[in-house]
Design a protein that fits this description.
Elements: H1 23-26, H2 41-46, H3 55-62, E1 67-70, E2 73-75, E3 83-87, E4 93-97, E5 100-107, H4 125-132, E6 137-140, E7 150-153, E8 161-166, E9 171-176, E10 179-185, E11 199-200, E12 213-214, H5 224-227, E13 231-233, H6 250-256, H7 264-269, E14 278-283, E15 297-302, H8 312-321, E16 332-337, H9 345-360, E17 367-372, H10 387-399, E18 403-405, E19 414-418, E20 431-432, E21 449-454, E22 456-460, E23 468-472, H11 477-494, H12 500-510, E24 512-513, E25 519-520, H13 523-532
Parallel strand pairs: 6-7, 11-12, 14-16, 14-17, 15-16, 17-18, 19-21
Antiparallel strand pairs: 1-2, 1-3, 3-4, 4-5, 5-10, 7-8, 8-9, 9-10, 13-23, 19-20, 22-23, 24-25
Length: 534
């Protein structure tokens, strides 16, 4: 069976840029056959939207996955990394990133799925091009670089194989002897030519993804507890007021979750905002004009991603330096955009670039903390290449005086907790873990600090100039990392003389220990201890 050696997928407004074929797997003969499958496979797949639908939507439509994995690794529901592949019985595979469906894979066997009413496993190359249009260019014998509308034939001399990506159609395919052997449904190049449509929801459960969802047919009058757990955006369509909980306002819910909670805004009111402190982020790309962080980005670097924006990049930027959402709204941000490629070399290069910037900055302008909402190395990492490069880059960065916060198990020290939606200021009311996947954090781990992942509101800008916000009633470690980075930036504003190791020790010393033994970040107590430190 032919598979890409590197798996790439689209997220909102993202296009895969590089593909390398695995020689050993390409040598395995591929067969296809028409099989008896449920006739509704096409109807079910049509209900899923790349970059919007979640793994929970997949479960609802096609059943619980029989396997969660990445290449040869297998994961449990309690140990899911940021990126993994979910396999369902009698169905396709789903590439999932941060709970969102990134691609839908049909490989080898014909499952009855038909793309654009004509293309399926076994279709001829001529039939495919008749539907999608002729390629802009055909290259023979060269490495597959994943360029849009370029037909690659005999890549690297591998006779009989071909590859074609049509970003405008949201599909890429591999061929053997001019027959489709793998079809990957991805997100279309742009939504500007094809307006989004609301997805009418037939069921509603806690932690569902309801962005662009039509909830107007539901009676939600007794569902307030569920509503605060949903993932929403400003396009979510709501029922009439008589079918909503008394006093509930979606716009007020979104606005209230801009508050970082845990006393952070009290610190802001005292002028402790991260002012004068430089921070770094390594993440997916963003436009720099969103009102939440416009004018706050001191430098922006693109590390070979050639992408425009994403869901993730604006989110983490706003959670760190956002005017309304950020823990350090007055910090200076150095942002490096990296591609969605499971090769840690990109993240290592990004980190080295931030270190290089520090060499030219004066002592009071240097980047003190760097946030990366990913795990480029270590156990469970979705990055399958050059992991050691990330570890080495971290050593260089910290030797140069910058504290690196990541999601790795061996280097990272942050985990997640949930704010109390009714009382987000009370540290003691935080719930440890990630409730939407039933994942708890090990009791009383001495080297872990828990920071809020939900409910939070963050910036959205998929298309340039279309400023919006999303409310996340569920969240992963991605949101805890920039939150913590912002708290540390406030500490360095108060005491710029303290080292990274001193700040880290004070973060642990000031944390609130729950009866369960979990340690929750306590920003107000942290600042008190920073001010008193000798």
């Amino acid at each position: 069976m032919l598979r890409p050696g590197k798996r790439f997928y689209r997220h909102p407004s993202l296009i895969a840029t590089t593909i390398v074929l695995t020689l050993a797997l390409m040598a395995v003969p591929t067969t296809w056959a028409l099989t008896d499958r449920p006739p509704d496979i096409n109807a079910k797949i049509a209900q899923l939207k790349i970059g919007v639908s979640t793994i929970q939507d997949v479960v609802r439509l096609l059943g619980k996955p029989t396997r969660y994995g990445w290449e040869q690794q297998t994961f449990t529901e309690e140990n899911l990394p940021a990126v993994y592949v979910a396999t369902v019985a009698q169905g396709p595979q789903f590439l999932v990133h941060n709970d969102l469906v990134g691609e839908i894979w049909f490989e080898g066997e014909d499952l009855g799925y038909v793309f654009r009413d004509k293309i399926r496993i076994g279709s001829s190359l001529d039939d495919v091009l008749a539907v999608l249009g002729q390629p802009n260019e055909t290259v023979v014998g060269e490495e597959i670089l994943g360029k849009n509308r370029v037909l690659y034939k005999d890549p690297d001399g591998r006779k009989g194989y071909s590859y074609f990506l049509s970003a405008r159609d949201g599909v890429r395919m591999f061929f053997l002897d001019s027959k489709v052997i793998a079809l990957y449904q991805t997100e279309k190049e742009s939504d500007e030519d094809m307006p989004r449509r609301h997805q009418v929801r037939k069921t509603l459960a806690a932690f569902d993804d309801c962005r662009w969802a039509d909830l107007s047919k539901f009676d939600l009058s007794d569902k307030k507890d569920i509503l605060t757990t949903l993932w929403l955006d400003e396009k979510t369509k709501w029922p009439t007021r008589d079918k909503m909980p008394a006093g509930f306002s979606p716009s007020e819910l979104l606005k209230s979750a801009m508050n970082p909670g845990l006393g952070v805004r009290k610190l802001h009111a005292r002028g402790i905002t991260g002012k004068g402190v430089s921070v770094g982020i390594i993440d997916q790309p963003l436009y720099r004009d969103h009102p939440e962080f416009a004018g706050k980005i001191a430098a922006y670097r693109d590390v070979d991603c050639e992408l425009k924006s994403s869901m993730h990049g604006p989110a983490v930027a706003s959670l760190l330096v956002g005017k309304q959402c950020g823990t350090a709204p007055d910090a200076r941000l150095y942002f490096v955009a990296t591609p969605l490629i499971p090769d840690a070399a990109y993240q290592a290069r990004a980190l080295d670039w931030l270190v290089e910037q520090n060499k030219a900055l004066s002592a009071d302008q240097k980047i003190r903390v760097i946030s990366i909402s990913g795990a480029p190395s270590g156990p469970g990492s979705p990055f399958k290449k050059n992991n050691e490069m990330w570890d080495e880059a971290c050593q260089r960065a910290e030797a140069a005086g910058a504290l690196v916060l990541d999601c790795t198990n061996h280097h990272g020290f942050i985990d997640g907790c949930r704010l109390d939606a009714d009382d987000p200021e009370d540290v003691a009311k935080c719930t440890p873990g990630f409730q939407f996947i039933g994942k708890s954090v090990e009791r009383g781990v001495p080297n872990r600090i828990l920071a809020p992942v939900a409910p939070r509101t963050f910036a959205e800008e998929y298309e340039k100039g279309q400023f919006a916000y999303q409310y996340a009633g569920k969240g992963g470690l991605s949101w805890a990392i920039p939150y913590t980075a912002g708290v540390l930036a406030m500490g360095w504003q108060v005491r710029p003389d303290l080292s990274q190791e001193q700040m880290k020790k004070l973060l642990f010393a000031s944390a609130r220990e729950l009866e369960s033994g979990h340690r929750i970040i306590d920003p107000e107590n942290f600042i008190r201890q920073v001010q008193a430190a000798k």
